[in-house]
Amino acid sequence: MRKPTYYLWRNDFPSQEEFEAERKKYADIGFRVVTFLDGDSNTNIHDGIKALVKNHWDNV
Fold first, then answer.
1. What's the domain of life for this entry (predicted)?
2. Contact 39, 48 (CB under 8 A)
3. Residue 7's pLDDT is what?
4. Cβ–Cβ under 8 Å, residues 9 and 18
5. How far apart are CA 53 and CA 57, in angstroms?
6. Which of 7, 6, 5 is nearest to 40 (CA)?
């Protein structure tokens, strides 16, 4: 069975320690944690992924 994915935005946390604690919390209960370094965490992540794939698909 595949692990569910949980998305975290690094800029939502005031310190690296708080970010790591949150990341570890989700990883320890079985999530695959994907981290974004910047961007708006209120944006629909699926729209961003679709745009990323579309932009890179044109280069193939």
1. Bacteria
2. yes
3. 87
4. no
5. 6
6. 7
Domain ranges in the chain are: 3-56
Q: Which two structure tokens, joined as six digits, stand for 13?
A: 């946390």
Selection from 27, 30, 32, 34 nearest residue 49 by Cα: 34
- Give the Cα separation of 34 and 55 in Å (integer): 20
Spatial separation of the C-alpha atoms in residues 57 and 28, rounded to whole Å: 34
What does the pLDDT look like over 3-53, one tens digit per residue?
Answer: 899 988 888 899 999 999 999 999 999 999 988 776 666 667 667 677 777
In DSSP notation, 26-57 reads: HHHTTPEEEEESSS-TTS-HHHHHHHHHHHHH
- Using only C-alpha atoms, the chain has a radius of gyration, in whole angstroms, of 14
- Could you tell me which residue, 29 or 60, shows the higher pLDDT? 29
